[in-house]
Amino acid sequence: HYVEEGVYVVELDRNGPAYSAGIRVNDIITMVGDQRVSKMLDLRRTIYSYRVGQSVDIRLIRDGREMTISMVLVEKPV
After folding, report:
1. SS3 of the chain: helix, strand, coil, percent, to 5
2. What does the radius of gyration of the chain's CA atoms come to, in whole angstroms?
């Protein structure tokens, strides 16, 4: 399964919401909600368009398999 565009996950906070939702290092995030993401700026802009407490579907590729996980957005700790 060849991926043409997406955001490659290089590191994650093990205490953060992305890790809790099931996102892992080496995943490639391709969509957030109904928006395609191809670079980190796209990912950030799309995430920030949602409100804290909202649930968003994240589509990603892991080990050549496409999967969708649901993540509840939380406020970023200082």
Report:
1. 20, 30, 50
2. 12
